[in-house]
Fold this sequence. Notes:
The chain is mainly beta. It has helices at 35-46, 72-80, 155-162; strands at 6-9, 13-18, 53-54, 63-69, 86-94, 101-110, 116-119, 126-137, 141-148, 185-194, 197-202. 13% of the residues lie in helices and 36% in strands.
Amino acid sequence: MKKMNIVYEDKEILVVNKEAGMLTIATDKEKVRTLYHEASTYVKKQYPKNKIFVVHRLDKDTSGLVIFAKTEQKKRKLQYNWENTKREYYCIVQGKMPKKNDVLKSYLIEDKSLKVYSTKDKRKGVLAVTEYEVLKETTKYSLLKIKIKTGRKNQIRVQLSDIGHPIIGDKKYNSKTNPLKRLGLHAYLIEYKEKDKQICFTTSYPEDFKKIFTI
């Protein structure tokens, strides 16, 4: 078992770089090792009455930054302003992108099997806006920097698949290749304003991304 990768910690928050393949928090169906459990065990070792609170989640197969709050008050404060929190990702997609940068907009809806897809019916779907920039490319793959303007479930995965460039390893959304044996999506930046101060946490590229690109 890998040691939890702590990026930052103070009396109010714990910021962790989650590995791919780990749930942020368990679902009703999956009672397995989770990042929440590891974070909770960690703070309780410091003091048995310590608690940890989930602010947001990453998909199981997405790696990157996750913020936990150490008090319920801090959790509510971060969640209240979450739509205004800047979140950026690195991802690797199949093929060369038609444009070096673009803004993807679509309306998303979730079916009974919990799969998200785009719909033309604006009344049923919720607007999702994703901005991308090509950082590097090979004949087979493109490395993108992603900025999400809305926080919709699976929006990056759905919208990139919609334009014919699914994220590698994303079989759910039509990827045909999986060279890293994981989803090629990494949450590398979270930034928010607190009082008059900008708070920013970042990570570097995952090591396995470097198997495809010279970064």
